[in-house]
Amino acid sequence: GGQILDASIVPVPRNHNTRDENATIKKGEVPEDWADKPAKRCQKDLDARWTKKHGKSHYGYKNHTNVDRTHKLVRRYHVTDAAVHDSQTVDHLLMQGNTGSGVWADAAYRSEEMEAKLRDRKLKSYIHRKGKRGKPLTEQAKGSNRTKSTVRVRVEHIFGAQANDMGGTLVRTIGLVRAKAAIGMKNLAYNMRRLGQLGRISPHPA
Question: Exposed e or buried b for every residue in 156-177, given b needs 16+ CB within 10 A?
């Protein structure tokens, strides 16, 4: 047992806004000249945000997931705009009733606050360690990260399946509410497919 936390960027079609319009939207407001243009406004996504990953810019939302280590099923998910840091959604994802106490995640989730949170819930941290400026990881820590990666990589299989075998990750909806529904359906569809695979492997996958 155990749970693996990770997040995947879900792109949406980009809005072609001016710089001023984008600045207004980022503040959570609606540009003034859109007020009397309802047709234009309903075609604009006011909830999606930009983020950078590996030096590339992405626009859309994030699918934050809690994946069962043993069966590779999405046990919980939470949808946010793409600019929300992976670690900010942990309270929505962590589960107490898992058969294993281990929690795996990449270094983006590691902090003193996170480690304390896991201890309070009697969960064991297998979160990757990260080096600090002027204090790189020791060889022992690097080896520990490699070992943890052999488990954590299982969540990448899910995102890979959604991207390559299930119509891609692009969501053509407008707004957070509809994005949540679309991403939730994609997670559900993956689970149904995975349950079918588990049924072929074992008659009792639970």
Answer: eebbeebeeeeeebebebbebe
Kind of pairing between the strands at 56-68 and 49-53: antiparallel
Structure tokens at 30: 């609606």
- Cβ atoms of 83 and 50 closer than 8 Å: yes
> Angle, to 10 degrees, between the axis of helix 139-164 and the axis of helix 176-201?
100
DSSP element (H, E) containing 78: strand 74-81
**pLDDT tens for each residue of 143-186:** 999 999 999 999 999 999 999 999 888 999 999 999 999 999 99
pLDDT in tens, 19-68: 887 788 888 888 877 777 777 777 888 899 999 998 999 999 999 999 99
Taking the C-alpha atoms of residue 159 and residue 53, their distance in angstroms, rounded to an integer, is 16
The residue among 175, 6, 179 whose CA lies nearest residue 90 is: 6
Rounded to whole angstroms, the Cα distance separating 80 from 10 reads: 10
What is the pLDDT at residue 203? 63
pTM of the complete model: 0.88
* DSSP H helical ranges for the chain: 19-26, 38-42, 90-93, 112-120, 139-164, 176-201
Strands 124-127 and 102-105: parallel
